[in-house]
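Something for you to look into today, if you have time. Just paste the record in under my message, thanks.
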Amino acid sequence: MSHIVTIQFAKAGKMYDFEAGSIELSQGDHVIVETERGLGIGQVVRPPSAQDETAPNNLVAIKRKATADDLATLEVISQKEKESFDFCVKRIIERNMPMKLVRVEYQFDCSKAVFFFTADGRVDFRDLVKDLAHSFHTRIEMRQIGVRDEAKMIGGIGICGRELCCCSWLRDFQPVSVKMAKEQNLALNPNKISGQCGRLLCCLDYEYDTYCCLRKNFPKAGKRVSIANATGIVDKVNILTGNITLKLDDNKIVVIRREEITGDGAAPASAPEAAQRTAPPAQPRPPKNRERRSEQRRKPEKSSLQSVLQTDTEETVAAQQTPPAAPKKAGAEQPPEAGKAGQPRSKKHRSRKHGHRKPQGGTTDGGTPAPSSGA
């Protein structure tokens, strides 16, 4: 059976599990542990708890409980961190480097010093590291962090008047979006919804799920609803008070409760109010009527085409039964319209339209051609 204890190395920092063994510890005690960077001193957050098979097997054991000498060494290290911070800031100003130093941390055994800084892009700090290593005679590590981590290390007072959440109790940063501010009906003013780090407030995420759950019981903005004696469109919804601002069809603004809504889906505002309440919704016509109307439209076209074909066939048969005209005498003159008497004018055009060919060597009336005057 293993005894696991939870430790943090900084206030509101990440928590790590260690094997307590037979050491008796309580919440708030300081212990010396071995980390990847070297020896470190941490504070107990949760006292040891016995766990059976569920406990991991690769936990690092605590070396010992911190003594009075260890706490005095911690004060000396804190003073050394301030001196290193001031020296590094002077070197950054002298070299005119585009970076901002945030904090300096030493390992408990002073084997390594970590310099945290912020910058807009990549910074060439090789010469700066040489100066720091020559002055402090220890391993130097430069680590670039973000603006939210900077606010967590520096600390401060928020717009609520209390200490920042990130440096007091918030251990992990959660993603925050503008959608959370819109869901809570907050003014999208960057000065009011941004924190000390310049990013969106972390507290926007605290009540976001509650607002989403309560909003399901209210109509959305822009939806048409009905109350006792009128209908209107939802303008605003206040989740905390439960009030709904309604804009009626006569442009009046009223504030109602959720229980006063009787229904939705009223008629458009252009019709009279009485017609909106009593007129039944228009029903679409059955598709059969459309089919019948289309058939009725097609019938005249079909009959007219048949009549044309039938007339053309009758005229063609009549032309075939007409006897050929007598041959003309030499020198005799015939009026130009003689051969076309009794025949419709559109016969020639209709014959060509339906594929009938003109007889070879014949006249327009189907007879034989007249002999020339010299025959």
Residues 2-66 form one domain. The mean pLDDT is 78. The first strand starts at residue 2 and ends at 8.
